[in-house]
Amino acid sequence: MLEGIKVVDLSAPLGPDTIMWPGAPAPSADTLVTIADNGYFARLLHVFEHSGTHFDAPCHMVADTASVDEVPVESLVAPIRVVDISSAIGNDADGLLTVEHVKAHEAEHGPIPAGSAVFLRTGWEDRNTDAEAYAGPEGDLHFPGFGVPAAQYLVDAGVVGLGIDTLGIDAGCADTFPVHKTVSHSVGVWHLENLTNLKSLPASGAWVIVGVPKLVGGSGCPARVIALVP
Description:
By secondary structure, the protein is an alpha/beta fold. It is 18% helix and 26% strand. It has helices at 35-38, 86-89, 99-109, 131-135, 148-157, 178-184, and strands at residues 6-9, 28-33, 42-46, 54-56, 77-84, 96-97, 117-121, 145-146, 161-164, 190-193, 204-211, 220-222, 224-229. Strands 1-13-11-5-7-9-10-4-12 form a 9-stranded mixed β-sheet. A two-stranded antiparallel ribbon has the order 2-3. The protein has a two-stranded parallel ribbon with strand order 6-8. Helix 5 (148-157) packs parallel to helix 6.
């Protein structure tokens, strides 16, 4: 038992009702053996690598970078900074994290240290059971994300990972994925998307454990993401 430590699950349930990136298949499972017939129960899973609360390896959008199994395990346990812009952006589905938001956070909580993971709370975690509220109208993606200058500021500070409570690190309207392609993955920074329960974390002081399978060649993988809060 971790005495005095609160364990917070940052992962959404993964199943056929999981809200997916448009066009991606939802998770499904075929029962192959049953206790009644075979003495044990097991299923064959069909899961898109970027389903539910999931990990993006750098090779997701930048060639010749690390796949899931190649990401240093040391980077998967990190102190967390939670930058909360939920009040600042309100219902703005195109809202972006700005450098000014980050600097305001640092003024209150201290500089973001190298080796940390920065999780962006937009408030969209409260919408993740309604596809249109979470992702925007069908065929017209809209949800908040990291602005490019803010992401570059964090990468320059030496963060190892970025996380968010929406479908993607880039805002839904940013169809060229500039943070993925030009800022973060190119220097080995990983992403966590579709996080939940960020409202249960302090702005600083917690740690994350990214429970992602060591998937050979993986561009990403669903993950059980756990925060430890003193």
